[in-house]
Amino acid sequence: MAQTTTADGQTTTTSHKPAGERLLGIYLNDHLAGSSAGLRLARRLAGAHERLPIGPELRSIAEEIDEDRSVLIALMEQLGAPRRRYKIAAGLLAELVGRLKSNGRLVARSPLSTVTELEALRLGVEGKRLAWVTLRDLAEEEPGLGLDPARFDQLEQRAVGQAARLEAMRLRAGHAALTER
Fold first, then answer.
1. What is d(CA 155, CA 46) in angstroms, rounded to the nearest whole number?
2. What is the predicted pLDDT for the residue at 16?
């Protein structure tokens, strides 16, 4: 419920949310959709490479992405932002469509599959990092929301670490794929 004061001093109550609150819910749902797609991609990558040296690292990143997604869901609950399941479904569909890229092979994975999937995951992690920065700023500027800026600093630093690990894997995979004989 939102309360507004009219020009003559009367207070009215409406059932719609203020624009900022509504937009925050949209923003968080967009990131939840991206997080859901990123988690699915990270788990798939980890499974595809479970017997390779990068498998455990990918599994660790997938677990961290899952934890970050849980933080986002808890934040949405704290702020009263409903989860929009259609956005989550759209994110998962986008991840599925992303598998249809041209990798030089019709049905099997190619070395380029790993490169492009690591690139996609790296981009998703960067988007998540930017969300944590935005939310930290919001927490600092709007203390009434009850958000802890330091927690968003920690989450941002974890995203920086994830991006660095993914970048190292991406570079190795890219070199291997593009110099394959």
1. 22
2. 53
Residue 48 DSSP symbol = H
- Say how far apart CA 100 and CA 117 lie, in whole Å: 11
Q: Name the residue ranges covered by the structural domains of the chain.
A: 17-178
**CATH 1.20.1260, applies to 17-178:** yes
Model pLDDT for residues 128-148, shown as the tens digit of each residue: 999 999 999 999 999 999 999
Span 118-135, mean pLDDT?
Answer: 97
Record the pTM: 0.81
Using the 8-state DSSP alphabet, how is residue 106 labeled? S
Q: Which candidate, 31, 54, 51, 28, places its Cα nearest to that of 42? A: 54
Looking at residue 145, the DSSP 8-state letter turns out to be G
Backbone φ, ψ for residue 33 (5° rounding): -60, -45
Number of residues in the chain: 181
